[in-house]
Amino acid sequence: MKKLEGSITEANLKAIITAESEAKSRYSYYAFIAEREGHEKISKFLLEMSQNELENVITLFKLIKDTGSAAFDTFSLLKDSIYQENQKWTKQYSQMAAEAENEGFTEIAHAFNELLDLAKQHERICLELIEGIKDKPEIPKE
Question: Which of 20, 43, 66 is the last residue of a domain?
C-alpha cells in the first residue's frame, strides 16, 4: 500500500479519530444523564451510539495499521500510552490548572490537578505493565 505517513489522508484519519472519540465520550455522558433522569430507553440508545463511535475509531485505527505507518503491538501501544499520559500531566494539565487558577477558576484548576494526578497514575501503571512484557521489540527512535 502507498505510504500514508505525512499525507493529507493521514491527517484526515487522525482528525476523524479525534472527532469520533469525542462523540463516544459525549454520547456516554448523555446516556449517564438520561439514565439518571429515568430515561432508560434513551440511555440505552445513546450507549449504542457511543459503542458505534468506538467501532468507527477501531475501523479507522485499522486503516492506519494496514498501511504500516504505525506499530500496533502491545509493547508499542503501551509506549505510546506512557508518552501520552506523560504529556498530559507534565504539560497539558499542569498548564491548564495554572491558567485556570490565574483566571480565578479555582474549582476548575482543582479538577485539572485531579486529572493530572490520574494521568501520573496511568503513566506509572503503564510503565509497570511494560516491564512485564517478555519479548520487547526494538522500537525505532523518533
Answer: 66
Q: Where are the alpha helices (DSSP H) in the chain?
A: 8-36, 40-66, 74-87, 93-102, 106-131
Report the CATH number at residue 43: 1.20.1260.10
Q: Is residue 137 domain-resident?
A: no
- CA-closest candidate to residue 10, choices 85, 65, 48: 65
Give the 3-state secondary structure of residue 7. Answer: coil
Q: Which residue from 97, 118, 116 is spatially nearest to 108, judged by alpha carbons?
A: 97
Q: What is the pLDDT of residues 101-142, one digit of tens each?
A: 999 999 999 999 999 999 999 999 999 999 888 666 555 444
Cell numbers for 91, please give them.
Answer: 504539560
Cell of 106: 479555582
Say what the pTM is: 0.73
Q: Please answer whether residues 123 and 82 qualify as being in contact, where contact means their C-beta atoms are separated by less than 8 angstroms.
A: yes
What is the distance between the terminal CA atoms of the chain, rounded to a whole angstrom? 22
